[in-house]
Amino acid sequence: MASEGSTYGDIHRYEPPRESTAAAVGIVLLTIIQVGLVGLFTYGMLAGWASGIGTTLTVSLIEANMFLGGVLTAIFIDLAFIMLLYRKEFLPDVMIVKKRRRKWEDLYIRQEDVDGTSMADQGQLVETVKRAVYPYYKK
C-alpha cells in the first residue's frame, strides 16, 4: 500500500509484518530463559553472593561478582534478542513523508533574513539588539 502524495504524513511504503510461528515460539523460549536468568540473578543478590555473605571459602568474592555480572550480561543479551525478533517479525515496515527542513529555518524567522541585517541601517538600535538577544521576541 503506497500513496503518491508528497504532503507531510503521507505513507510512501507499507509492508505488513511476516508474523511467523517460528519467531513466536522463539520469543516464548527466550522469555522463559529470561525469567530463569532474572530469578537466578535475584536469588544471588538476596543470598548475598556479591557481598560475600553466605559464600564458602572455595568461592571468592571476585568470582561471585563476576558470576553475577555474567548473569546480568546474559539477561540483557537475551532481552536484545527478544526485541530484535519482535521488531523484525511483528512490526510493519512503514516509510512516511517527513518535512524537509532547510538550514536557515532553525536560525532565522524569514528566508530574507539569512544574510542578516546591519544595525546602522535600521535606526532602531535598541530593538535590533533585543531581537538579536531574544530570538523569540514578539513583534
Describe the protein's topology:
Blueprint: E1 11-15, H1 21-47, H2 61-90, E2 93-96, H3 103-107, H4 119-122, H5 125-133
Helix pairs in contact: 1-2
Mean pLDDT: 76
Evaluate the radius of gyration. 29 Å
Biggest sheet, in brief? 2 strands, antiparallel
Strand content: 5-15%
Helix content percent band = 40-55%
Can you write the helix and strand succession as a string?
EHHEHHH
Please state the structural category.
mainly alpha
CA-to-CA gap between the ends?
46 Å
| Strand order in the largest sheet | 1-2
Number of strands: 2
Instruction: Catalogue the unreliable spans.
Output: none
What does this structure look like?
The protein is mostly helical. 54% of the residues lie in helices and 6% in strands. It has five helices and two strands. It has helices at 21-47, 61-90, 103-107, 119-122, 125-133, and strands spanning 11-15, 93-96. It has a two-stranded antiparallel ribbon with strand order 1-2. Helix 1 (21-47) packs antiparallel against helix 2 (61-90). It is flat and about 80 Å long. The two termini are 46 Å apart.
Gist?
This protein has about 140 residues and is mainly alpha-helical.
